[in-house]
Specification:
24 helices; elongated; alpha+beta; 8-stranded mixed β-sheet; 6-stranded mixed barrel; about 850 residues
């Protein structure tokens, strides 16, 4: 009990001393408003930049998904020599589900566009997902209203059900709870709403815009199909199974599948935490790089604040020594100085949160234009990070000045030494801080400069087609009679597309129109194996992977893809003519490296019990790249098929125009409503807008990095200016004596600048090593970014030296204009 009382007494005394120190620090800072404002502002900018970048990381990579045990949820990717993130065929995913021993669930999904019609209203386009019935139990979240659809409803003929997202239910139906059991008209068919999911379940950063979920209801043919890879897949790990164990098991399963199923032997599987799959590899690496570089802003701010504290300590040296003479211990003086630094850090952390909020609002406006429910926010995790930054920076910039202040010599400080004079240790530490600031600034400038320059060069690179001047839209032809045969539906589609093309081409300013299954923005949609006539029959599972695109006659001219040899599609390529294809250069060189591909025939491998359908190669076009995707190869093996020979319902519309592209939006929408009322034209954008949206996250990070680099440069310049100005003030008497003895203004200018330039050059020399490391790191993290540019770091180093010299020159020039008599009176 006695020991407990002693502890309580000491704790109470410590708390009283701390409260007294805080009050004293607050009064002291109020008496120095200029110092306080500069210190808090500098710290707010450094902490705000880091808190904002941490918020982005938190939203995409750290914050747990809103599902039970999210660490057990993983994405299942198909891998090959071409990509590490390819989709799957329906047969393969179903095999994974049935044969694996490490997952409770393996769930396929795919994006879904639906058309909803109501009496007296225009058709409304909806975005959603096609999923199997175990999608919801895999994620483990019950419906807020109603229920999920069942396995019995996930079958052909019984799949006319839907589950709505909370956002769509609230926006479209006013959160009416009686929606469960109501019938909607989707794709011209009655569909019963069986449930509504709770808020947050749709997680737009992970899934994109979601209005509803519909059953896949795979047909027997789809369950056997391995030639079309278009499905994404996720799994929930069994209890006690790690991701590494599951990946080893699934890789072994995939390796055994070709012998049993004919799956491709060139492929494997890769598992990734579902949380990480909210962004691709390039975006993740860019976010970590930007976060790391933003830390240099905080380091520069800390160096500036430490210098400010040193100046303030030197100016208050008599105060500290008087307190020491009156009995204050060294620990007491040290604690008082650290308390003042802590008060500044807390104020800077609070102001930094405000700065971070402004940056986050900018990020949200730029990043989530089409995702109203997706947001980067300041949550408890971010506030904890901000508080940690404030505490650490308080210690970083406050410790050394506090130690120096506590070492004040009483006798010398109370003597007649000039006021404000400082010891050699103070001067050495200030110079070290300036060198550090310059080095940190060069590393930050180099990383940001190479990132920005590389992104600009990537955007300027010719992708093999003309991006500008194109309007794009998505169109799904709805309302077809499900009782019709495939040939009958194909005839209806061909007739509609023909009339649609003619009517759009007649619009003012339209040069040409293309209809295609996908666009080369971020990558093509689906792939499959390809057999070559005349070559030895390949073993099942060893066919090369090719992306097959269905395109209209005007596709190549509209996009600006060049013909290399042969011909493009024309009116002779109809249903009565032999099947044909146009291939890209890469495919032609791989299959026929030393001969012409024209007249050669290729085919998709047949399903068991069916015959090959040969496609004659009639033309070769240039390779096209994906200007909206830094993660994928510049081009792929591509085979184009005429729309007339293989019409499909879901297509992309691309129009080249001589007018402002946005001016075609309403005319195209009205035309579609007139020709096919049940088929709304969705997502009307320019191709350039789509490219920018695909690169949006990376471009946004580059913009933030550029802003941080400018901020770091400004802070470094302010620090150099402040130290030089203080040095000039300390040497006023010396300068006066030199000028009284005959020194000219240029001599004084040279005297002041020599030291500043030496420190700057030393900082640049040390920073060059860090800049080289950052450049190498950038190239290793994002190898597709063309960032090999030695002139950029050299130019940035020269800009930094110039800025630093200007920051030193201004106080030096002021010193050179001192009046000797005034300077001597100051002494």
């Amino acid at each position: 009990m006695r020991s407990f009382g002693w502890i309580r007494t000491r704790a109470g005394r410590w708390a009283r001393d701390l409260a007294q120190d805080v009050k004293y620090a607050a009064r002291s800072l109020r008496r120095a408003p200029a110092f306080t404002i500069v210190a808090v502002t500098t710290l707010a900018l450094g902490i705000g930049a880091n808190a904002a970048m941490f918020s982005v990381l938190n939203a995409f990579l750290i914050r747990p998904l809103p599902y039970p045990q999210p660490d057990r949820l993983v994405r299942v990717f198909r891998t090959s020599i071409f990509s590490q993130s390819w989709p799957h065929s329906s047969a393969n995913v179903l095999d994974y589900r049935e044969r694996n021993t490490v997952f409770d669930y393996v769930v396929p999904w795919n994006g879904l566009r639906q058309s909803m019609t109501a009496d007296g209203e225009a058709a409304e386009g909806l975005q959603g997902m096609s999923v199997t019935a175990d999608f919801f139990p895999a994620l483990g979240v019950p419906a807020a209203h109603g229920r999920w659809f069942t396995t019995d409803e996930d079958k052909p003929g019984a799949s006319q059900v839907a589950v709505l997202s909370e956002g769509f239910w609230r926006r479209r139906f006013g959160a009416d709870p009686s929606i469960v059991g109501r019938t909607l008209r989707l794709e011209g068919q009655p569909v019963t709403v069986v449930g509504v999911m709770p808020p947050g379940f749709e997680h737009q950063i992970l899934w994109g815009p979601i209005d509803l979920w519909r059953p896949f209801a795979f047909t027997p043919e789809q369950r056997q199909a391995r030639g079309n890879n278009y499905l994404q897949a996720l799994g929930r790990l069994k209890a006690g199974i790690s991701r590494q164990q599951a990946e080893q098991s699934m890789v072994a399963l995939q390796a055994n599948m070709p012998r049993q199923t004919g799956a491709n032997r060139n492929e494997s599987l890769r598992l990734e935490p579902l949380q990480r799959s909210t962004s691709d590899d390039v975006s993740r690496r860019a976010m970590w790089l930007a976060f790391g570089l933003s830390g240099f802003v905080l380091l520069i701010a800390c160096a500036n604040l430490a210098n400010l504290q040193l100046v303030r300590t030197a100016a208050r040296v008599r105060e500290h020594t008087v307190r020491a003479a009156l009995g204050a211990s060294r620990i007491r003086l040290l604690r008082q100085s650290l308390t003042e630094s802590g008060v500044i850090a807390c104020a800077g952390g609070h102001a930094g949160s405000v700065v971070a909020l402004g940056v986050i609002e900018f990020v949200n406006r730029r990043l989530f234009v089409d995702l109203p429910l997706a947001r980067v926010t300041l949550d408890l995790r971010v506030f904890s990070f901000t508080l940690s930054c404030a505490v650490v920076t308080g210690l970083l910039f406050g410790t050394v000045p506090a130690l120096l202040a506590s070492r004040a010599d009483v006798s010398s400080a109370l003597s007649d030494r000039p006021r404000g004079s400082t010891s050699g240790s103070h001067s050495t530490f200030r110079h070290a801080l300036i060198v550090s600031e310059v080095a940190f600034a060069l590393v930050l400038l180099t990383g940001a400069g190479l990132f920005l320059k590389g992104l600009q060069r990537f955007s300027d690179r010719d992708p093999g087609w003309r991006v500008d001047g194109l309007v794009t839209a998505q169109l799904g032809v709805r309302g077809l009679n499900v009782s019709q045969t495939p040939d009958q539906r194909g005839a209806v589609l061909r007739a509609f597309y023909k009339v649609f093309e003619e009517r759009v081409r007649a619009l003012p300013g339209v040069v040409d129109i293309a209809i295609s299954s996908s666009l080369p923005i971020g990558g093509f949609n689906s792939s499959g194996p390809l057999a070559v006539e005349g070559r030895p029959a390949l073993e099942q599972g060893r066919y090369p992977e090719v992306f097959a695109e269905t395109v209209s006659l005007g596709y190549f001219n509209t996009l600006g893809i060049r013909l290399i040899s042969g011909r493009l599609f024309d009116t002779r390529d109809n249903t009565d003519a032999p099947a044909v294809t146009v291939v890209n250069e890469r495919l032609a060189k791989q299959f026929w490296p030393n001969e012409s591909p024209l007249g050669k025939r290729v085919s998709r491998p047949p399903r068991p019990g069916t015959n090959l359908t040969w496609l004659e190669v009639v033309g070769v076009v240039n390779d096209v790249g994906f200007p909206g995707n830094l993660s994928e190869p510049y081009s792929r093996l591509e085979s184009f098929i005429p729309l007339a020979q293989q019409p499909i319902q879901g297509m992309n519309i691309t129009v080249r125009t001589t007018m402002v592209p946005e001016s075609l939006t309403e005319p195209m929408r009205r035309l579609t409503a007139e020709l096919m009322p049940a088929s709304p034209l969705n997502r009307i954008r320019t191709a350039r807008t789509l490219v920018n949206q695909n690169l949006g996250r990376t471009e946004l990070l580059a913009t933030l990095l550029g802003a941080f680099a400018v901020l770091g440069l400004v802070l470094a310049a302010i620090g150099i200016y402040g130290v030089t100005s203080y040095s000039v003030a300390q040497r006023t008497g010396e300068i006066g004596i030199r000028m009284a003895l005959g020194a000219e203004a240029r001599d004084v200018l040279r005297l002041i600048l020599r030291k500043g330039i030496a420190l700057v050059l030393l900082g640049v020399s040390l920073g060059a090593f860090g800049a080289y490391a950052v450049a190498a790191l950038l190239l290793s993290l994002i190898p597709t970014l063309p960032a090999r540019d030695p002139m950029t770091p050299i130019g940035l180093a020269l800009a930094l030296v110039t800025t630093a010299m200007l920051a030193s020159y201004l106080p030096a020039r002021r010193a050179s204009k001192l009046d000797p008599a005034s300077a001597l009176r100051h002494e």
